[in-house]
Amino acid sequence: MAALSKSEQAYRLIRERIDSGRYVPGFRLVLAPIAGELGMSVVPVREAIRRLEAEGLVTFELNVGAQVALVEETEYQHTMETLALVEGAATAMVAPDVTEDQLARAARVNERMRQSLANFDPHRFTELNLEFHSVLFEACPNTHILDLVHRGWNRLKVLRDSSFSFVPGRAHESVAEHDEILRLLADRAPALEIELAARN
Amino acid sequence: MAALSKSEQAYRLIRERIDSGRYVPGFRLVLAPIAGELGMSVVPVREAIRRLEAEGLVTFELNVGAQVALVEETEYQHTMETLALVEGAATAMVAPDVTEDQLARAARVNERMRQSLANFDPHRFTELNLEFHSVLFEACPNTHILDLVHRGWNRLKVLRDSSFSFVPGRAHESVAEHDEILRLLADRAPALEIELAARN
DNA sequence: TCCCGTAAAATCGTATATGATTTGAGATAT
DNA sequence: ATATCTCAAATCATATACGATTTTACGGGA
Q1: Would you call B78 and A46 a contact, using CB atoms and an 8 Å cutoff?
Q2: In whole angstroms, how far apart are CA A75 and each of A197, B11, B164?
């Protein structure tokens, strides 16, 4: 009925806790306690951690164990850079086939963002920001790039809580840039122009 | 002395066999025989497969097992697209700090490629091609993007053997494009121009 | 013939147990 | 006071064993 292996359960729990910031970077992931908490043996937990290791969310050392990946100061910036790159590409790929409906939905989200500027909530704003872009790039035909975009957002979610930084004025610019992207899409502007606009 | 866990050994073996084409796409990875062959139990093999799963090289189904990831016809193209994107970006990032030495080395590699055009060997050519680009992008400061470039090349290595396709005339163009990239780098051309040139 | 149900084989999933490695605390010598 | 050695505790790594699930083969009935 569950249709979920214990490895998978363990993976989701750990992943969720990293995302939520409950396991902060540097936190040591000891097998036994986690297994105990989940009511399973350590074997599935190990497998879950292997997956997280392959995804770069945790680091590993032989006979020592795993810990939540440390993020250098530059890490955040690198992630942003990468995400900008792939998301820009994804958006540009979608551009030719974008529908009126998509544009309208994105515009609505952006409008909500504009309104939320009044009593500013960073978390909420980020959520809406993701939603805005999602509407545009989810139709991207290249599954690889789409996957990279998702990974980028996930990674960002982890980082934001630990090394938080948000330039206040940035939010206003952001909304304006969204308007610009929508305008370019509606006008069927050249792909390159759209890609560069979406990079921000 | 080994300093290598059995999981790691298993990972490398399977990975190597997928890369080399010995395990073709669709091949079913049954735990017991692999474990037997390596002289270990199935547990480390399972962990290795989890990692490969997270990397997208194998697919997995509960209580059924793993098989080497199937590649659709479009997969190859998508990988190429993605690789072009990230490699272009990586090259552009390196551009400002590229050294004379790097340019000279890259030029030498390209010269060898030009010579190899006479008695054409696709495998050899691809190898040189990777070497050419490696010289240029290995210094990329953004480790994320660098990692994506590596993944892209690995993936490509897997795909090439299964769904092989090589347009003969493409090789000549390629060498010419390399010349162009080197020229732009030497001239300290705008980053965007370099990025777009490197995308091919 | 074709479909379905049943049972056996193959394979995976996980718990437990044991050995190996690393870490850390305390004692001892300098 | 510091460095080093020793030993115990913590933790990981893996093998083995057993249970669960899926697949496959086979035989009876429509």
Answers
A1: no
A2: 23, 27, 37
